[in-house]
Amino acid sequence: MGFDQLLFYVFAAVAVLGSLLVIGQTSPIYSVLALIVAFFGLSGLYVLLEAPFVAVVQIIIYAGAIMVLFLFTVMLLNVPREGASDWDRGHPHVRVWPVRIGTVLGVVMAVQLIWALSRTVGLGAGVADQRPAASEVSELGRVLFTDYMFAFEVTSILIIVAMVGAVVLARKREN
Amino acid sequence: MAGLLDWLTAPQTIFFLTVTMVVFVALQLSAAVMVYAERKVAAFMQQRYGPYLVGPKGLLQPIADIVKLIFKEELKPKAADTLLFAAAPVISAIAAFTAFAPVPFGASTTFFGFLDEPMPLVVADINVAVLVIFAVTSMGVYGIVLAGWSSNSKYSLLGGLRSSAQMISYELAYGMSLATIVMLAGSLSLREIVDAQQGYWLGFIPKWYAFINPISFLVFATAGIAETNRAPFDFPEAEQELVAGYHTEYSSMRFALFFLAEYINMVTVAAVSTNLFLGGWHGPFIPEAYGWIWFLIKLAVLCFGYLWLRWTLPRFRYDQLMSFGWKLMLPLATINLLVSAAGVLYFGL
After folding, report:
1. Quick one: CA torsion of A70, A75, A78, A84, rounded to 10 degrees?
2. Of A56, A72, A137, which is closest to B161 when you measure between CB atoms?
3. Cis peptide leading into B232, omega within 30 of 0?
4. Lowest-pLDDT range, B58-62, B191-195, B279-283, B285-289?
5. Among A157, B147, B248, B337, which one has the highest count of C-beta atoms within 10 angstroms of its own C-beta?
């Protein structure tokens, strides 16, 4: 087993364990922190794929900006720990339907994922050809603004819609 | 085992380990020097003597401070979150040390003929160094936020929340001014950005980005002060309102780690500004191989600027800080970025 392979397993373990810890505990602050750890694991995997730019952007955007806002919100609202009442189905605060719908959605997503993964063939071969595009920042920019122009612009519109929505919701009502 | 031994005794490895150790020790020493300088500069500006009892001219004062901090009792509030309370100062310190890793501080050298091929004077020579520094700096906020939350004290929590709001606000302007320089130099590598600033106009004005794009330099310097939570932007620890801010409940070595992180962050921001705007290790009179002397001189001047500002300017009000960041710095940096982009496109600056 080469050094790269060893690193792959380490980073993969960090990412998977971090993701499991996000949902596997009661304190929301610890969940946020576990998600950050998972992002660092993913970032390490990007470095192994010789895409340092993507790795760093992953840290800046997700771990650096989005998760700080998450943490900020959780701390400001002072979200309490999940107690035993959340698991008690007879408790008056527990609504049954959201739980049922959530379970169905979860199962559907798992089935979709398995189906999609079983249909992909030769994932590795496709990645190997694209390597220079992912490692050179200027090359990445060129591809993004030519071949994937449409997807790029649509994403930016999506983000603007979200921003406008947030402003509308947070605005002071005059009357 | 033989492979490992070969790797350990290879000149490149020895050079790499030496550079790493030198940077690690120098950063800690720089914090001590900065503490002494801070107290002496403050005393000078307020017509006092400053420390003068321990050692000649009080030079051993930082060592006395460290000894005092080590022997103090480690306190922890009863309702504090034990794990995060212990982890927060460590996160701060790790982020501070890591941020210096991709910062080059001298020209490539063969180390007096010790190496076959010249190697750059830097811990980690990364081709996206600018972004790595930006990413690691933004990790530092977690130390402060977690310290504020885990202390379970209202002053700490408010300090932590303020700090995260402040750092997010100023990171935008900070990133925009970085992007301007990246565009002018056409590279994300700090080594290439420094090399792009060689040469002179009219034989004596150096081609520094501070002269080509002064707005970017001003925005970067201001946002840098806000990022490191220094006066006049030191809201996380505004003592009149928040006692001591996020480290109200910390004592002994845990407090010392926050202190260390703050001073190392100052040195790192000054070092990055030196590389981005002041031509790094290039300068007249000193041969290229000793360029790190120029680097240290420029670094010292910028660090003195930090102290000078702290003891000259009063602290902003919190709403002033926010409107300054969002309504002045960010638009200024954005317009500057667009104008520079047009300049690069049409005149090939």
Report:
1. 60
2. A72
3. yes
4. B285-289
5. B147
Amino acid A100 reads R
Q: Using a CB-CB distance cutoff of 8 angstroms, which residues of chain B are in contact with residue A57?
A: 131
Answer whether residue B236 shows pLDDT above 70.
no
Q: Looking at the predicted complex, does its ipTM rise above 0.90?
A: no
Contact, B183 vs B341, CB < 8 A?
Answer: yes
Query: Which residues from chain B sit within 8 angstroms of residue A56, using beta carbons?
Result: 128, 131-132, 134-135
The tokens of A73 are what?
């919100």
- The torsion angles phi and psi of B252, rounded to 5 degrees, stand at 55, -140
Q: Is residue B95 a contact partner of residue B141, using CB atoms and an 8 Å limit?
A: no
The whole-number pLDDT of residue B307 equals 87
Q: What sign for the dihedral angle of Cα B279, B285, B287, B291?
A: negative
In the CATH hierarchy, which top-level class contains the domain A1-82? mainly alpha
SS (H, E, C) chain A: CCHHHHHHHHHHHHHHHHHHHHHCCCCHHHHHHHHHHHHHHHHHHHHHCCCHHHHHHHHHHHHHHHHHHHHHHHHHHCCCCCCHHHHCCCCCCCCHHHHHHHHHHHHHHHHHHHHHHHHCCCHHHHHHHCHHHHHCHHHHHHHHHHCCHHHHHHHHHHHHHHHHHHHHHHCCCCC
What's the pLDDT band for A133 if we cut at 50, 70, 90?
very low
Calpha distance B108→B282 (Å, rounded): 12
- Packed helices B252-277 and B291-310: angle between N→C axes, nearest 10 degrees: 120
**B258 burial class (0-12, 13-18, 19+ CB within 10 angstroms)?**
buried
Angle in degrees, CA B39, B279, B126, rounded to 5: 95
Chosen for mutation from B85, B90, B94, B127 (greatest number of chain A CBs closer than 10 Å) is B127
Average pLDDT over residues B50-69: 84
Q: Are residues A53 and A63 in contact, defined by beta-carbon separation less than 8 angstroms?
A: no
Q: Using beta carbons and an 8 Å cutoff, which residues of A are at the interface with B?
A: 29, 33, 36, 52-53, 56-57, 59-60, 63-65, 68-69, 71-72, 75-76, 137
Helix, strand or coil for residue B228?
coil
As a whole number, the mean pLDDT across chain A is: 80
Q: Both tokens of residue B317?
A: 């009000």
Read off the pLDDT of residues B88-137 as tens digits, 9 standing for 90 and up: 889 889 988 988 888 888 777 766 666 667 777 777 777 888 888 888 88
Cβ distance of B139 and A52 shorter than 8 Å: no
Please give the structure tokens belonging to residue B202: 């009219």
Contact B95, B143 (CB under 8 A): yes
